[in-house]
Amino acid sequence: MDAPLVTIGLTCFNAHDSIARAISSALAQDWPNIEVLIVDDASTDGSLACAHVAIAGDPRVRIIRHQHNTGPGGARDTILSHANGEFVAFFDDDDESFPSRISTQLATLIAYEQRTGARLVACYASGIRHYPNGYTLSLPAIGSRGVEAPNGPGVADYLLIYRRRTGWCYGSGTPACALIARRTTFTTVGGFDANLRRVEDADFAIRLAMLGGHFVGSAEKLFVQYATSAADKVPEKDLEGQLRLVAKNEPYLRSIGRYYYARHWPKLRYWHFKRRYGRFLLELVGLCVRHPVEVTAQLYATGPRRLRHESRMRAGG
Predict the structure, then answer these.
(1) Which of 40, 118, 236, 245 is most buried (most C-beta within 10 Å)?
(2) CB 109 within 8 A of CB 39
(3) CATH architecture, range 6-226
């Protein structure tokens, strides 16, 4: 076919209630040349059986089962190692992508390559997050607005220490569930770090940024993310992942004088989420002593929005 093959990679772990919906949205894509790779990461709840029913013998689909759980990074690396597509897009097992997602993101990515000559390009989709109480949150894609797409180490600075550049649209960050890129881009970056159970998508984006990568996004909302709870979606796991990410980037962070900031801001967030306000204040004082300007700017930029978000998650609407 004239249309390049796109591999849709769908990771699955204990998603009995949502995997059929995710598979259906992958198979409903209006792009005419796709393959769907489903990696069941050693589910224990019957997800694999649900997946087999959902694909109904569709020849475009392959299912790979892990004997041992590897986490999302390992599952995505399995997809990359088995992908035949020129492009690879990742879907999550509890999300629903609209039929035009692949075609819209590909048009955005290829147009950017042709306009700029850039070859390491990651394209993200805008979306919507639904919470169980009815509250919805818009998820604009990084690079979906503005004259210049975020690129290079400046993106790593944002992900590690929230350093922002004027005119760049950072959107909702760099979630893998919204990502499409050339398979060669994933290969060049080195895929995902299977040792990270959380923030493995930010780690991929940081390594791409350090190689001079470009981050573009589709302004159109192309997927729905359903907020769910799971054993790995807790503050302790988030903090562990963030600290491991900082440790991986310690030499760079020390070179720009921001290692302490990058290591202690996640701790500040953690104590806020745990409502341990004494520990929160201790972390805040330590940060303010060393980086008063940066701390004040980040609190002003993110604090009110975070409090409104948490209030709406509790109240709904």
Answers:
(1) 40
(2) no
(3) Alpha-Beta Complex (3.90)
